[in-house]
Each structure stands twice: as C-alpha cells, then as structure tokens.
C-alpha cells in the first residue's frame, strides 16, 4: 500500500495550530498563577495590616505573591513565569489601595492611568514574544549552568525577590500619593511627562528591535537604526526614566519627600551594574565588532557620540 504524504499546506496549518495552542495554554497558566498570587497577597495584607506598619504589610503581601509565582515556575519548570510580575505588581497594588481607601481623586486616577499605560505596554510586549510555558530567558539558562543544584534558591532570591523589592521601593511614591490622598498639582505634570516619555521610548525601541530581528541576515548583526543608532539600550533608558517620573510626581510638590527618589536611583543602578553588563557580556559572544560598537554608541542617551 502506498502511503499518501500530507500536503505541506496542511502540515503548516497543523504546526501553526499547535503553536497557538501552546501559547494559549501558557497564557492560561500565567493568568491562573497571577490570580492565585494576587488573591493570596490581598488576604495576607488584610490579615496583617492592623498588626504592623502599612508599608511593611504591603511588602510582605507582595513578597508572598512573589513566592507563589516562583512556586508556579518550579512546578512548570519555567523561571520565565515571573517575567510579567515586574509590570503587574505596581498597578495591582495601586488599584487595591484606591479601593481600600476610597481615594478616587482626579490626581490619583491620572497617576494610575499613566502607570497602567506603562504596565499594559510592557505586559503586551511580553505576551507578543511569549511562545509557550517552556520558554526560558537566556539569563536564566546562564544562571542555571553556573549555580547547578542551587538554581532554585538563586531563582527565588535573585530572579524573583530582588526585582520585586526594587520595584516595590520604586513604587513607594505612587503608594504614598494614594494613601496621603494628594491633591493634583501642576508640578505633577512634570513627573507624568517623564513617565510618558519613558514609556514611549520603550515602545519605539521595542518596535524598532522587532523590525530589525525580522529583516536581519543573522544574529551577528548589530542594530544601528532608529533610537538604537545612538543608544545601545534605549529600552532600558525608557524604564529608568519611567521610575524617575513616578518619583517626581510625588516629590516635586513637596521637596521634603526627596528620599522617595531612592527607588528610582536603585532601579537605575540595577540596570547600570547588573542588566547592562549581563546583556553586553552575552552579546559579545555572537555580535561582530561589538567592542568597536561600544566605543561608537552611548550606553543610554540617544545622542551622537
């Protein structure tokens, strides 16, 4: 009996459907993970909020939600389950605080809207590049190779809890703005403008990178177009500016709150001394003339050197 070969068109359709199913399954797992983590965080917060200072209660609830997200990653063998947490935690806590305090002023809603714009864009960018739950970022692979049996501890403390803590500290100005029921000030618009600028920088940088990846000949090419022509990390610059903007919204009307700038500074230092060196060390392995490229293009500011 002669076996008929399935037409290539049908094979392609089946492969496409399988890819879509894997992505939808992964998104469902992420959704359930974050709903469970959010619910647990809220329950823990309400059980301890009258026992300890409010900001400590928020952090403990946030840390508990982070642990649950990490546990889901362990179960499904994917450290990347934590990735969206960066953009989800701040708006989730802000919304919870608004509901709890009944602080629904124009200033609070405008502040939340700018944070949501950033969060939705960042989360959408993650989902666009997400294929299935088995996807693991190259940084996680590198850490796993280096740490071996200790990886899950490094995963919990370094990949999950450290970013959660950095973002929490950087978000404190937004939480304080809500809890203090601040009135809207024209000075707030400066911070909001910096937040918007940072988000748009990330948006354009990510789009330009995606276009480049589709059209490049191979991985050894270095992007030298758009924002990337003068900046090696315009997307990181956008993230750094966003958190400075969050701080400025709260600080500018009252400079006595200058210490609240600490979170944005810590976030800046994290990119400067951890994220950028890791990314560039990895790129040196496969990018042609990368050292020369570093000499010609600034790290952050998209200005001609």
Task: Give a description of the structure.
It contains 10 helices and no strands. Helices cover about 70% and strands about 0% of the residues. The protein has one domain. The mean pLDDT is about 90. The chain is mainly alpha-helical. Helix 6 packs parallel to helix 8 (about 235-250). It has helices at about 10-50, 55-75, 85-100, 105-130, 140-145, 150-180, 190-215, 235-250, 260-285, 290-295.
Question: What distinguishing features does this structure have?
Answer:
10 helices, mainly alpha, 305 residues
Brief summary of the model shown:
Helix content is 71%, strand content 0%. The protein has 305 residues and is mainly α.
Question: Mind describing the biggest β-sheet?
Answer: none
The helix tally amounts to 10
Count the beta strands: 0
Q: Please give the alpha-carbon distance between the first and last residues.
A: 70 Å
Order of helices and strands: HHHHHHHHHH
Helix/strand-derived category reads mainly alpha
Radius of gyration: 21 Å
Number of domains: 1
User: How helical, in percent, are the residues?
Assistant: over 70%
Mean pLDDT: 91
- Outline type: globular
Strand % is under 5%
- Low-pLDDT parts are none
């Amino acid at each position: 009996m002669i076996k008929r070969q399935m037409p290539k068109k049908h094979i392609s359709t089946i492969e496409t459907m399988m890819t879509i199913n894997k992505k939808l399954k992964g998104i469902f797992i992420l959704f359930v993970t974050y709903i469970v983590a959010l619910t647990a965080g809220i329950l823990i917060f309400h059980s301890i909020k009258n026992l300890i200072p409010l900001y400590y209660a928020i952090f403990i609830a946030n840390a508990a939600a982070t642990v649950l997200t990490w546990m889901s990653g362990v179960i499904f063998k994917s450290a990347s389950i934590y990735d969206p947490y960066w953009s989800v935690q701040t708006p989730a806590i802000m919304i919870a605080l608004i509901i709890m305090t009944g602080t629904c002023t124009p200033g609070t809603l405008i502040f939340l809207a700018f944070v949501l714009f950033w969060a939705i864009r960042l989360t959408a960018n993650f989902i666009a590049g997400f294929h299935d739950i088995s996807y693991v970022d190259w940084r996680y692979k590198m850490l796993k190779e280096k740490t071996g049996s200790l990886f899950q501890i490094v995963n919990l403390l370094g990949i999950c809890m450290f970013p959660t803590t950095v973002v929490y500290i950087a978000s404190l100005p937004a939480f304080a703005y809500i809890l203090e029921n601040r009135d809207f000030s024209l000075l707030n618009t400066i911070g909001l403008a910096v937040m918007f600028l940072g988000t748009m920088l990330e948006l354009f940088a990510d789009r330009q990178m995606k276009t480049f990846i589709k059209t490049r000949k191979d991985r050894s090419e270095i992007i030298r177009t758009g924002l990337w022509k003068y900046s090696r990390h315009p997307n990181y610059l956008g993230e750094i500016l966003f958190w400075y903007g969050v701080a400025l919204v709260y600080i500018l009307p009252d400079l006595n709150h200058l210490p609240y700038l600490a979170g944005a500074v810590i976030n800046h230092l994290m990119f400067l001394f951890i994220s950028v060196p890791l990314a560039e060390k990895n790129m040196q392995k496969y990018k042609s003339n990368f050292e020369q490229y570093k000499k010609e293009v600034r790290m952050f500011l998209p200005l001609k050197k």
